[in-house]
Task: structure prediction
Amino acid sequence: MSENLKRSLELEKYERRKIYDYVLIFLHWWNALSIFCLMLTIWFKPLLKPIDNWKEVLYSFHTYIGYSLIFGIILRIIWGIIGSKHARFFNMFHPKLYLKVIKTKNIKLLKREEWGHDILGSLAYLKIYLLLLIQAVTGLYLAAKVLSIGPLLNFLTFTNEKSLLDKVMKKGHEIIYYILIIFIIIHIFMLIYTEVKDKIPIAQSMLSGFQYRRKK
Result:
């Protein structure tokens, strides 16, 4: 029996629906690629040190890629308000269910299958978007402070001396960077683990827009 035939027979056990629109998919990969490129500028830091003005080169690339991420985050927030059903943030937040879990102490309620974003995973996504917003603010602040560029330059007065706010912004930017790395590792691991355990093609949904659920 061919692999394609095995695959088609396997998919007969699942229900298939178009869930994610192409605007959401585009923004997902735009933001993911922007974050990855930002991380590359940090990982390639040792390679740039032989260059005389390596700091200026590195910070410039990092800042302009950061602008692309901010652009993507703004569009994602807008689409999370006016977009399709499963793109909206309201559809990712389930306060009544969370309260029910707290009252009944039945965490299994969070594992029920629904179309769209995973119920438990949605909480992580919302927190990550909040952290990305904070990362954007701290990044804009540092761009104005270090490179004297960006929109905040017109609203804030900077000196050569390092203030407490400078240290807080820099440290916050670094901490969120490490949190994002941990989230990405967990996110990829859970995708692979869930696909192998449940034998459901999950990762492809952010390419095709289709989700699969086992037929009951």
Summary: The beta strands are 14-18, 210-214. The mean pLDDT is 84.
